[in-house]
Amino acid sequence: MCLDEAREKGGAMTKTFKILTILGSPHNGRSNTRALVEDFVDELAAAGLPLEHRVISLGRTPIAPCRGCWSCAKNAPCPQSKNDDLEEVKAAMLGCDVLILASPVYENQVSAQMKALFDRLFTWCHVFPLLGKVGLSACTTGNDGIAPTSAFLEMMLATYGVSSFGTISSMGAFTPGFFPRRDAARAGHRKLARKVVTTLLEGKALPVTRLQRRMFKVMKRKFAVVHAFDWIRHGPIEGQPAPPRILLWLLRRRIEKVGITDEQLDRLTKLTPFELSWWRSRGWLDARSFEDLARRPRPSIDAIAAVEAQ
Fold it and tell me: Considering the entire predicted model, what is its pTM?
């Protein structure tokens, strides 16, 4: 039973929530960030949430770096997937109820392991594949860097469509396995854990954030333009909304001024066929807000796999 079904039934729930942590630390069992997350999940269980917790440690399930080949955007298999378990990680993210993105602070940013995952999920940054899911971010540091790292993790959650409860974090997590402030961190996040449990068990929706609205505007603008270029080049598309007249006028003037050829226009319209087909197939091109988007048909594991396989 999904969260939407739970809301329809007035919050009565018997399901076990699947919590997935993507751990960016290379240290796995000795990771202070993992300890922070596991303590928080223990608090969720203590507060009455039926759960299963899976940790995918990118230090043990390494993701090869992106080569910038754009194969994923062209509905072609990623050549790097032959070298890693990205498809398994994606399936786990699509199948979870609660997603936790967790990384230690490395040079005021997420770890290289976590960044490699984000880079390989290039097309996901455009289609809100985890729309309707909830999650949170987690990070630890010895001294500094919590703010930029947590902000980046929160931005990635919003980019994928996840509604976040915020960040759990702790300073004073020094070398791997040396985490003297662990008990204080656990106690400090107990109130948030209770909020998470109450929200999930009652089937409540988290409020839409300014960051989610901003990400929607960015992506809506991007694919409105790509859709308009395709419209200019190939004409009306059955079942799809016509681009705004002012946008078509501006783009046509731009095409004439720059001297864009039909061949170049074809290349522009074929840069992101997976993402454009996703926005079209879900009826998202005429959505006016993130709230509106959230009311439209939502992605499913099978649907994303089918579009990616085209």
Answer: 0.90
